[in-house]
Every structure is written in structure tokens, then in C-alpha cells.
Design brief:
This protein is an alpha+beta fold and about 450 residues long. Helix content is about 35%, strand content about 25%.
Length: about 450
């Protein structure tokens, strides 16, 4: 999982599923090297029934050789990332691994206890008047509504980073064991709000029939992904694949930010020193989000650099020596993906310099320099990202609230608060649209 060679098969297309609601196929996480999730298990039913979870609260306790032997790893399930983020104050992590009695390890799951804040969901969803009233009651005086959430998957990122399984574990068994994991971790942390996230169209189609009735299925804003040709060696080749309007947009972005000083910082001690300033910039962006799950801390950057080395990118942007922005990302060699992690910037400088768009360009440039197949850009600024060639990938999340009468209210909220409708811009030339469509992305 932590090897340095690229997995060429991660770039190969899978046949798209005929599902009318699918915007595009998720390319990141375990789906990239998709398990044969519906295959028959080689274990006897009694062995599956007697399998049990083993929980690890510290990196030194985890049998990493067994964890890394499971197919379908991702950046957020990488040993190095999980080690760097252990001891995090805002996000508590447990790794679970399930083992057959006197037999092999069968799978693993990432569980997190996250402090969640609901601030202004109406700004990002087409909510009904009833939902606006309910939200106002929960957020009296405009204050954020805070609650702890038990998350299977990644609270600080989007995509399929939930679990890993042996290839012969069926979808029904995966869901059954995931529900067991929730029951056990809910008791451990005493948390009543549960989320199993995120599942792209292929994985969701496999798992959806098997969730018990206590869960509600929800969709939020899609994650945005830019596919790349791993043979490209420069951003000029990427731009040549774009339509004239998109190329003009890129030239404008670079021209507006040309005199900013851009520096890659790799020294963990320097990142520790910069940490408070980076967090201050990060809060200017993340602080405006409608729903906040967890959050970064000032020492995260140094820890990530220590563990990930050259697979961690942190760029600073300065205007006349003054720090005005930063971006950080993670490269995962086995899935050949770039995960755009977090950014921060001064809002006025961003308006003047198109700083956010410049950061998106830098993520693309980094991906091309590493021969990556895709850049996963998260769930914000959908239209801006689509102008540079990003496609939306719909993700599903399963939610449960362990309180009397809570689930009917939750299902009503989900039904009355769908994500804003979004039509991506068409940035690619026709021949490239055809290629990306063949690889599973839905093109307008």
C-alpha cells in the first residue's frame, strides 16, 4: 500500500453502470482497484459467523502487514497518513480489523469520532421552508448546532476511504460487519449520530440492498475529480486537451497570480513553525463551510510531512513577503491519485489574484509531474473546478440517529433538503470528452 510504483490497472476503465442518477464514476479509493465484492467466500458460513472485530487505538498496535495486504487502499487508509493523524484532538480514530476464529484477517475499517458543527446548510442545499424553520430552532441565535458523529470513513476528506476487504467477502457480509463495527464503536464512544461515508455509484449499487432499515441514504454535493492522462509530462499537454475558453481561463489565472512567490515547504520543523499561520488562513476558508466535521490543527502539517515525505505537498503563496495562502495535498502511488487536502487564503487576495484557481492548477501540475491518473478535488466550488475539467462524482452516505423518533425526522430532512442542482461546464475538447466518457465519467 505504501509502495512507490504506480498501479497501471488503476487507470483502466470499468464499464459504466446504467444508472440515470449517476453523474460520473468515482475513480478514487478502493473502487480504483475494485474488489470482487459479490464473489462467493471461500470461508464456511460458520467461520464467517464466528469472525470478530479487533480494535486498535494507537498505530503501534495495528498489524500493518495484514492491513496493507488488503487490496484497494487509498491515501486516507494509508499507514503513513493514519500514523500522522493519530493523537489528533478534533478527530479520534480507531482501526478495526475482523478476523476469522483461528483463521485469516478478513477486512479492516476506519472509524472516527468527530465533532460536527451544522452552520448554514440552507446556503448549499435547496431546503424547504420547513427545514429552514427546523434549522433555525436548532441553531438559536445563529449559533452552530454541535454534536458528535461516529463516522465510518474519512471525516476530513471525501471519497471511498471507509474499509478494506478480502476479495471474496460478499457485499452483504461487508454491510453486516460494518453495522457490527458501528454498534461496538458507538458503545465505546457513546455516540448516537452515525455516518457511513462515502460510496460512489458502483460501490453503492453493490451495498445498497443490504443495509438494514435503521439507515437513511443521503446524498450531498458531489466530489469533483479531474482525470489525467498518465503519459502527459507537462501542463501544456493538459491545456492542449481543453477547449479554447478553458485554455483562456487558465492563462488568465496564471497571469493574475504571476508575481506571487510560490514555495514548497518540506521541512517538518518549518511547517511546525508555520502551523499557526496556516491554520489562521485555513479558518478563513473552512470557517465558512455549512457543515464542519473535525478540522486541522497546527501540528498536522509537520506530522504529515514527516510520515509521507515527498508524497505530501505543501505550497505557500506570498505577496511581497506576506503569507496570503497555502495548499496541501497527498499523493497515493498505489491508486495513482492526488488528493487535494486543504487550502487557506485571504479572501481579498483571492479575489484579486484568482488564488484559489491557481491552487487548483498547482494540484493538476503536481499530478502530471507524478504521472497520476486523477486529481480528487473535494466537494466545494463545483463550478470553478469544472471550468478546469473536473467532473462531479455522486457519493452516497448512510446515516442513523440512535434516538427515539429521530429517524422519521431525519428522513424528512433528507427528502426536503437535496443538494443544489449543478451543471458542470464543458472544459474538454470533444475527443477528450469521448475518452473520459468511456472511462465512466458522464459528460454533458
Amino acid at each position: 500500500m505504501t509502495g512507490v510504483h504506480s498501479n497501471a490497472k488503476a487507470c483502466e476503465a470499468e464499464a459504466p453502470r446504467p444508472m440515470d442518477t449517476v453523474l460520473s464514476r468515482p475513480m478514487s479509493g478502493p473502487t480504483s482497484t475494485r474488489l470482487q465484492a459479490d464473489g462467493a467466500s471461500t470461508l464456511a458460513p460458520a467461520e464467517l459467523e464466528q469472525a470478530r472485530w479487533h480494535w486498535f487505538d494507537a498505530p503501534g498496535e495495528v498489524p500493518w502487514d495484514a492491513w496493507e495486504a488488503f487490496p484497494g487502499g487509498s491515501a486516507y487508509l494509508d499507514r503513513r497518513y493514519l500514523t500522522a493523524m493519530s493523537g489528533h484532538g478534533k478527530v479520534q480514530c480507531r482501526l478495526g480489523m475482523i478476523k476469522a476464529e483461528n483463521g485469516p484477517w478478513l477486512g479492516g475499517i476506519l472509524m472516527q469520532a468527530v465533532q460536527t458543527e451544522s452552520r448554514s446548510p440552507a446556503e448549499h442545499m435547496d431546503v424547504s421552508m420547513g427545514v429552514r424553520i427546523a434549522t433555525a430552532i436548532m441553531q438559536r441565535g445563529g449559533k452552530a448546532f454541535r454534536f458528535r458523529t461516529l463516522v465510518a470513513g474519512q471525516g476530513l476528506g471525501s471519497g471511498e476511504h471507509t474499509f478494506l476487504w478480502r476479495p471474496d467477502i460478499s457485499s452483504a457480509q461487508q454491510v453486516k460487519w460494518t453495522e457490527q463495527a458501528f454498534d461496538q464503536c458507538a458503545k465505546h464512544w457513546n455516540i448516537r449520530v452515525w455516518m457511513a461515508k462515502d460510496f460512489g455509484p458502483v460501490r453503492d449499487g453493490q451495498l445498497a440492498p443490504h443495509w438494514s432499515r435503521r439507515w437513511a441514504r443521503a446524498t450531498f454535493d458531489p466530489v469533483m475529480e479531474i482525470p489525467l492522462d498518465p503519459t502527459w509530462t507537462s501542463t501544456d499537454q493538459w491545456q492542449a486537451a481543453l477547449r479554447t475558453k478553458a485554455r483562456t481561463k487558465v492563462r488568465s489565472i496564471l497571469a493574475r497570480s504571476t508575481d506571487l512567490d510560490v514555495e514548497r515547504v518540506t521541512d517538518p520543523s518549518e511547517l511546525d513553525r508555520l502551523g499557526p499561520d496556516l491554520i489562521a488562513l485555513y479558518d478563513q476558508v473552512y470557517g465558512r463551510a455549512s457543515i464542519v466535521m473535525g478540522g486541522l490543527e497546527s501540528r498536522d502539517f509537520g506530522r504529515l510531512a514527516t510520515e509521507l515525505g515527498s508524497d505530501f505537498l505543501l505550497l505557500t503563496f506570498r505577496e511581497e513577503g506576506h503569507l496570503v495562502g497555502f495548499q496541501c495535498g497527498i499523493h497515493h502511488a498505489n491508486s495513482n491519485s492526488i488528493e487535494a487536502y486543504y487550502v487557506g487564503f485571504e479572501s481579498e487576495i483571492n479575489k484579486e489574484r484568482a488564488l484559489y484557481q491557481r491552487m487548483l492548477f498547482e494540484f493538476i501540475a503536481w499530478g502530471i509531474s507524478l504521472g497520476a491518473c486523477r486529481v480528487v478535488m473535494g466537494r466545494t466550488a463545483l463550478e470553478i473546478k469544472s471550468t478546469l475539467g473536473a467532473f462531479p462524482v455522486e457519493l452516497s452516505t448512510y446515516v442513523h440517529i440512535n434516538l427515539p423518533l429521530a429517524m422519521p425526522f431525519l428522513r424528512w430532512m433528507i427528502r426536503k433538503a437535496p443538494p443544489h442542482p449543478f451543471k458542470p461546464r464543458r472544459a474538454w475538447l470533444a475527443e477528450w470528452c469521448k475518452r473520459w466518457q468511456a472511462e465512466g465519467y458522464r459528460v454533458n
